[in-house]
Structure formats: C-alpha cells, structure tokens
C-alpha cells in the first residue's frame, strides 16, 4: 500500500513539474540559492522592529507581550519536555514543545536576550535526539 502511495505521489510531482516550469526550477538542486532571506517562517527584521515599537507605545500590546514573556520565563525553569514511549506523546508533549519554542523564540526576537534563544535550541535538540 505504501509503495502504491509513493508511486502516485511521484507521478503527481512529475506531472506538476512538467506543467509548471517555475516549479520545476524551484525543485532543482540549486533551489536553495534562490530563497528569500531569513527568516522565512515568521517575520522579517522590519516586522520585528514594528512589533517592538508597538509594544513600547500600545498598552494592550505591552500586556500581551508580558504574558508571552512570562510564559518564556517559566519555561527557563523547567526541564525539557521528556519523551514518553507511547503514541500519546505526539499529541500532548509535542504541542507543549511547539508552544515553548514559539514563546522562547518570540521573546528572544523582541528582547534580544540570548538565554531565550539558548533554551529554544535545547528544546529543539531534545526533539532531534528522540529515538525512532
């Protein structure tokens, strides 16, 4: 069954590439050279600067950021999320890790405090080191 699905996906991808030359070029080996500058997942540097100004000038934004920063501060005092060898791991703890990384990364980007970045890296490395 898996082989059938993989073959169908390969066929679908080859049809897309044949129909769309730009997609074909994007899938080439050198596609990484044509990517927009980092960060590509969330926001660029101009957007972070706007958020910093908004937090400084708007009381509601300041309160929202205070909640987010408090969340990141609490994570600093906790151990990384532990691997639990059950299928339930991917539902509860994985979401918990995602929330932690987002809070830590956002707080780092808005404050520049390296301790939040370091802890986000620890959380990500913990997930990478999980056994298969």
Give your account of this protein's structure.
By secondary structure, the protein is mainly α. It is 67% helix and 0% strand. It is built from six helices and no strands. The longest helix has 19 residues. The chain is globular, with a radius of gyration of 20 Å. The chain starts with a helix and ends with a helix.
Structural class: mainly alpha
- Strand % is under 5%
- If you average the pLDDT, what whole number results? 76
Q: Cα distance, first to last residue?
A: 22 Å
Instruction: Provide a count of the helices.
Output: 6
Provide the succession of SSEs: HHHHHH
Silhouette = globular
Largest sheet: none
Low-confidence stretches: 15-19
Brief summary:
The protein contains 6 helices and no strands. It has helices at residues 2-19, 21-26, 45-57, 59-76, 93-111, 114-128.
């Amino acid at each position: 069954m898996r082989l059938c699905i993989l073959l169908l996906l390969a066929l679908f991808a080859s049809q897309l590439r044949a129909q769309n030359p730009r997609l074909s070029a994007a899938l080439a080996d050198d596609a990484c050279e044509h990517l927009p500058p980092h960060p590509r997942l969330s926001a660029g540097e101009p957007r972070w600067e706007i958020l910093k100004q908004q937090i400084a000038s708007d009381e509601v934004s300041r309160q929202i950021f205070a909640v987010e920063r408090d969340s990141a501060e609490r994570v600093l005092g906790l151990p990384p999320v532990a691997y639990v060898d059950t299928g339930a791991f991917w539902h509860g703890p994985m979401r918990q890790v995602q929330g932690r990384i987002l809070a830590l990364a956002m707080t780092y980007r808005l404050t520049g405090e390296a301790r939040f970045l370091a802890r986000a890296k620890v959380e990500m490395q913990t997930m990478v080191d999980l056994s298969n």
